[in-house]
Specification:
The chain has about 500 residues and is of the alpha+beta class. The protein contains 18 helices and 19 strands. Among the domains are: about 20-155, PH-domain like, CATH 2.30.29; about 190-270, no CATH class; about 370-495, no CATH class. The chain has helices at about 20, 25-30, 30-45, 45-70, 110-115, 140-155, 185-195, 195-210, 210-215, 220-225, 235-240, 240-270, 310-315, 340-350, 370-390, 400-415, 455-460, 485-495; strands at about 75, 80-85, 90-95, 100-105, 115-125, 135-140, 180, 275, 280-285, 290-295, 300-305, 315-325, 330-340, 420-425, 425-430, 435-440, 445-450, 460-470, 475-485. The strands form 4 sheets. It has a 7-stranded antiparallel sheet. It has a 6-stranded antiparallel sheet with strand order 13-12-11-16-15-14. A 3-stranded antiparallel sheet has the order 1-2-3. Helix 3 (about 30-45) packs antiparallel against helix 4 (about 45-70), helix 7 packs across helix 12 (about 240-270) and helix 8 packs across helix 12.
Length: about 500
């Protein structure tokens, strides 16, 4: 540390040498095309060409990370980090600490075994980009944690010096109680709730396309015949009744879907812990890939309370934040509580200095046109299915009519829940039946408002408001549907004038 109390410039640093080992998984994935081509020529007994292709593929694939490691370096200045990369075209990138919005630390399985970590630096310039401003791939875990603490301390006005010895341990004081954490029981419960119809569809499609090849199709009689003995009365009844066989097949896929949801949840949310920091939330989670992410609260654009009919019945909800900061693989959509009670969700909002959603009677429900427009959209499909069933006498097409009827009922249920209200300096919107959401949107975060009407909406005298909000990927646009036109115009004016 110099006399001014700043950080002394350190020697030029490289990524950890074990980066070459940690990156072998990615290297092998990039080589599959060349290796497959080599395997094809081996089958054709063209050994020379196969050896040439496989050799060139391995040489290029293994040489590329070595060249990248040799050409990449980084160093710390008093108030910035510099990264240099490239061979023919050199790139020098300087990132001032004051511009860094997020410092995220990630560890996959190999990195955890080797004591390495991946550090992602994000600034406001990368909010709408898919790539991070700066990435230090596979540096020592102690260096990653020290760099994160150094940038946080610098932004807080308390500069510290990063340890020169990359192997020096980092002292960690006792942590306060977390804002939110998940034990094993809640983790497993969240996995059960994460079963989705999408997983069921994938599994059903798999049995139709690959079931014959792999011998796995629980909707076929032969599948159960091979699992049991036809001489047993119960098994014989199942095999003799197609409906019962189909029900057992459905139950099998549901069980597989539940197991898939449990596995995905455990891998992603294991050890979930949310702590309050001086700038926002710090979230740590993951079994195989451990992530350590800081979410600055000043970059949060909206909060979403997500639940469903079953979860709501038992008093559970998920808390998500839409932010300008990005989450790995999820854009700006951050889950800060996968499965929380209402009291826990309210506590998280209070930590953000946001008011919890209070019970009130001034919620506004959309016009019945919300249902009518949707039903009019389904009518052509219903007529086509009914006509085809009558002409072809294929009454299986009536299942299409049943599905359309189910969609219509779901829309009616969604209409009964869809509503909105102005709550001081924010807009609250509830929507959905199966995927119920309550959006908490500060008026100051609304970037644009579109008033949309199709020809049916005009005939029914309704309009839809689409609210543009920065950040996020899965819910970046919010809206209020099927409002009487005069009400929509009035609401638009009030939303555009937050100071009322």
């Amino acid at each position: 540390m110099n006399e001014a109390g700043g950080i002394e410039r350190r020697d030029v640093r490289r990524l950890h040498p074990l980066t070459l080992v940690a990156g072998l998984g990615g290297v092998m994935r990039s080589l599959w095309g060349g290796l497959a081509a080599g395997a094809y020529f081996i089958v054709q007994q063209r050994w020379e060409l196969a050896a040439l292709i496989v050799g060139a593929t391995l040489a290029v694939g293994l040489l590329r990370p070595l060249i990248r490691w040799l050409s990449f370096s980084w160093e710390l200045g008093p108030d910035e980090i510099e990264m240099k990369s490239g061979v023919l075209g050199r790139n020098h990138r300087s990132i001032p600490f004051d511009r860094v919005q997020d410092v995220n630390v990630e560890q996959n399985v190999i990195a955890r075994l080797l004591g390495l970590a991946r550090v992602k630096l994000e600034t406001g310039a990368s909010a709408g980009d898919k790539n991070e401003d700066g990435v230090l791939d596979s540096i020592a875990l102690a260096d990653a944690e020290a760099l994160r603490d150094l940038i946080r301390a610098h932004r807080a006005g308390d500069p510290v010096v990063m340890a020169a010895d990359s192997d020096a341990p980092i002292e960690q004081a006792g942590e306060p109680a977390p804002v939110y954490a998940m034990d094993l029981r809640r983790l497993l419960l969240a996995g059960l709730f994460n079963f989705s119809l999408a997983v069921f569809g994938v599994l059903a499609g798999f049995t139709q396309t690959a079931g014959d090849l792999l011998g796995f199709d629980p909707f076929r009689r032969q599948f159960w015949l091979e699992l049991g003995h036809a001489g047993q009365p119960f098994i014989a009844f199942i095999l003799a009744n197609r409906v019962v066989t189909a029900l057992f097949g459905l139950a099998t896929l549901v069980l597989v879907g539940l197991a898939t949801g449990l596995l995905q949840t455990v891998l992603r949310e294991f050890g979930f812990r949310l702590d309050r920091t001086e700038t926002g939330f710090r979230r740590r989670r993951g079994l195989l890939t451990l992530t350590d992410v800081v979410l600055p609260l000043r970059r949060v654009q909206a909060a979403i309370l997500a639940t469903g009919p079953v979860r709501r019945h038992f008093g559970w909800t998920a808390v998500k934040l839409q932010s300008l900061a990005r989450d790995s693989g999820h854009g700006g959509d951050h889950v800060v509580a996968p499965l929380a009670t209402h009291d826990e969700a309210d506590a998280i909002l209070r930590e953000m200095d946001w008011r919890p959603v209070a019970h009130a009677d001034d919620w506004h429900r959309p016009s019945p046109a919300y249902v009518i427009v949707f039903l009019l959209f389904l009518v052509p499909f219903a007529l086509a299915a009914a006509g085809a069933a009558y002409l072809t006498t294929d009454w299986h097409l009536l299942l299409v009519l049943a599905l359309l009827g189910f969609l219509g009922i779901t829309r009616i249920l969604a209409w009964r829940r869809h509503r909105h209200r102005l709550d001081g300096d924010r807009l609250l919107v509830r929507s959905g039946f199966w995927r119920q959401r309550t959006v908490i949107l500060p008026l100051a975060r609304i970037q644009s408002i579109d008033l949309k009407r199709n020809f049916i909406d005009r005939r029914l005298g309704v309009s839809n408001l689409v609210l543009g909000v920065a950040g996020g990927s899965g819910f970046a646009h919010h809206g209020v549907a099927a409002l009487p036109h005069d009400h929509a115009l009035d609401l638009r004016d009030r939303l555009l004038d937050p100071v009322r």
